[in-house]
Amino acid sequence: MMRWAMLIGLLLSAPAPAAEDIDREVRRVESALTRISQEQQSVYQQFQMVQELRRSDQAQMQPLQSYTSPATPPNYDDVKREEEARAARVKQYQYELDRLYARYRELEEQKKPLLDELSALAQRRSQEQ
């Protein structure tokens, strides 16, 4: 009889460590998801800033609708150099936008298995209760 009481006691105490393990895993996964989400937010903010810089430079490249000549005409070489520098910046901005977008998508892909794991842990937790 004493053996049965001990066995029942062990069985009743067994789910507690399993529940603790699940809770620990949930915290680990949530922590990883939080880190990835924070990095994603940072990448998105960088993307927006670079996009605005690119738009600004592209707008300056567009011909003016109403042109009033300045008091002294600008030097052709200076204007050409400025246009080329602006075009190079726009190209660099596009490269940076592509890089940031790729990083954002990469982070999104890293989140998928973690979300699946979190869902599986939640399901295990509900089954054990």
Features:
129 residues; mainly alpha; rod-shaped
In a few lines, what is going on in this structure?
This protein is an all-alpha fold. The chain has helices spanning 2-13, 15-61, 76-128. 2% of the residues are buried.
List the helices and strands and how they pair.
Blueprint: H1 2-13, H2 15-61, H3 76-128
Describe this structure in words.
The chain has 129 residues and is mostly helical. The chain has one domain (23-61, 74-128). The protein contains 3 helices and no strands. The chain has helices spanning 2-13, 15-61, 76-128. α2 packs antiparallel against α3 (76-128). The longest helix has 53 residues, at 76-128. The mean pLDDT is 85.
Number of strands: 0
Mean pLDDT: 85
Count of DSSP H/I helices: 3
Order of helices and strands: HHH
Measured by DSSP, the beta-strand proportion falls in under 5%
Computed structural class: mainly alpha
What radius of gyration results from the CA coordinates? 30 Å
User: What is the helical fraction, as a range of percent?
Assistant: over 70%
Which regions have little confidence, pLDDT < 50, spanning 5+ residues?
Answer: none
Kindly give the count of domains.
1
Separation of the first and last Cα atoms: 28 Å
What kind of sheet is the major sheet? none
Give the CA-based shape: rod-shaped
